[in-house]
Specification:
Layout (H helix, E strand, L loop, with lengths): L5 E12 L2 E13 L4 E5 L6 H8 L7 E6 L2 E2 L5 H11 E4 L11 H10 L7 H14 L15 H13 L5 E5 L7 H16 L4 E5 L2 H6 L2 E6 L2 E9 L2 E2 L1
Parallel strand pairs: 3-8, 3-9, 6-7, 7-8
Antiparallel strand pairs: 1-2, 1-4, 4-5, 9-10, 10-11
Helix pairs in contact: 3-4, 3-5, 4-5, 5-6
The structure holds adenosine-5'-diphosphate and magnesium ion (MG).
Magnesium ion binds next to helix 1.
Length: 236
Amino acid sequence: MTTPIIKMQQLNKVFSTDDMLTHALLDIDIEIQQGEYISISGPSGCGKSTLLSIMGLLDSPTTGRYFFEGVDVTKLSLEQAAAIRNKKIGFIFQQFNLIDELSVYANIALPLRYAKHPASDKKIKENVDYCLDLVGMTAKAGHRPTQLSGGQQQCIAIARALVAEPSILLVDEPTGNLDSKSSDQIIAILETLNNQGTTLCVVTHDKRYAEMAKRKVYLLDGQILGQTRLEHQGMF
Ligand SMILES: Nc1ncnc2c1ncn2[C@@H]1O[C@H](COP(=O)(O)OP(=O)(O)O)[C@@H](O)[C@H]1O
Ligand SMILES: [Mg+2]
């Protein structure tokens, strides 16, 4: 078996605020292999976003081990963690976080322009055009985000997350701001991306979307309750 993209062992996260301790994650053991489509679901406050933030090197665990592509990332400096994050991880959030003053094209190009080693204009154009096509938004390249619907803006956010060719897409409640038709379209795009090889970890409290993933992880009160996997033979 190849090295997993993500491997967490006995991972815990405790937040301390004023005089209160919140045990947000409790002894999490999880592996994500290349090419997987995994959903993490559970009720509000169960630790989904905390888990995704730690996976995405936006936060660190209180205790436990975390290996990203085989590298122990709990020992890295903030700068080293940021370098891995920018190069290897694509994020999609409920808020689209697009810059209204920039064109769609320029928004998608941002991760490549501001990389530690910025890509050439030719490479940027190749990747942006490719990602625009993947999400069916080629015709919108010159638009401003404010001229697009919510669903279209989320498509642009997906293209931006993909443009630097990350190892994994971490997705937190991608449909939280969308009507049901746009939500279905976004989930369909994510599914297509996975079928083309993109590794996906999608956090959602929406059971219907969680069920569409090939592997499902359920969280409750910071603990993994159970997992199911959809194989060619069916569910087991
Ligand atoms: N920065 C923080 N400081 C203190 N408590 C936090 C912080 N972030 C999350 N929590 C707490 O950790 C628990 C899990 O939160 P979160 O991961 O956001 O849940 P979910 O995404 O499943 O709704 C909650 O009890 C929440 O209040
Ligand atoms: Mg959340």
